[in-house]
Design a protein that fits this description.
Shape: globular
Strand order of the largest sheet: 1-2-3-4-5
Structural class: alpha+beta
Strand content: 25-35%
Number of helices: 2
Helix content: 25-40%
Order of helices and strands: EEEEHEH
Radius of gyration: 13 Å
Amino acid sequence: MEKQILHDKKEMRFYVPFGDEEAELTYNFTEDNHMDLEHTFVPESARGQGIAQKLARHSLDYARENNHKAIASCPVVETFVKRNPEYNDMMLWP
């Protein structure tokens, strides 16, 4: 069964529960209202299932749908964008 990605706007994170653990991608907003995708974590028990990539895609899709440019501070997101150039138009690179 496909795990659903949940969004906690108050805590500024996308997450997927795995029993007592969670995979998550955290973000913040810059002064210019750009979405800074900061950190991705997947518990060891859930690794190797493409969860980090799903979180990256979901967060980038959310940013696009809400007209935010995105910053890939997280290396996982940076790698994902390099492998999925359809997101290049919305990225702000340092």
